[in-house]
Fold:
Amino acid sequence: MDSIVSVNWLNENLENPDVIILDASLQKTRVHIASELTEYTIKKARYFDLKNKFSDVNNPFPNAFPSKEQFETNCQLLGINDSSIIVVFDIDGIYSSPRAWWLLRTMGHKNVAILDGGFPEWILNKFPIEKIGSRGEYVKGNFKVNLDKKSIRNFHNIYENLESKKELVMDVRSEERFKSLVPEPRKGLRSGNIPNSINLPYTKLLTKGKYKTKKELKEIFERHIQEQKPLVFSCGSGITACIVLLASDQILSNKKSIYDGSWTEWGEKIK
Structure:
């Protein structure tokens, strides 16, 4: 299964009993969108609660990677099986859905893709929708976690890399944030960037809520990466870094991981 599928593909497979559709939209995003997008979702979609069910809420940093037990339990409650074909989408087109994709892949579920263009593209094509909250309980799934530890980097890994430079850290925040030209959106967090990191804003890879073509993505990455070092993607809090990782996964053979604490952790710990 490709890591990115079209709305046409999903519509054609909507009645496949093995297909599970996950809505990974962030609630704070919904608040700022005044349209039918806030009240409806794709038919048969199940809510993948990134902020609460699929993050470590006891961690001082936002969107922290959850425990294996927490992740497995909540996936099973959503009816996810090892054999499920999972399609993830979000309300912004492509924003938070790659984070859900990366979590599922890292936890061992390989048959997962994001919906290119997300819910706006689905609505545009007038495909079936239903009221949010129409469904709630599902037959318990049998998904079992098989964690890929190599897909995650922590603070100590990044700190050690300052000297070894074995991995290339790619910061996907805006150029203005990377260069400290604007304050960080998180109150009290200093501006700056991780030493030796390079900047590729995630917005450069998208057009109207969809990924650019593989040819365009290849040209963009080639302007920034000229070596086969393992890549570590970082952002503000681990969400948008996954957008760029997924894009790179389409065209680059480099090993890839996410710095889960991202700038929120680094900027707090390194003064």
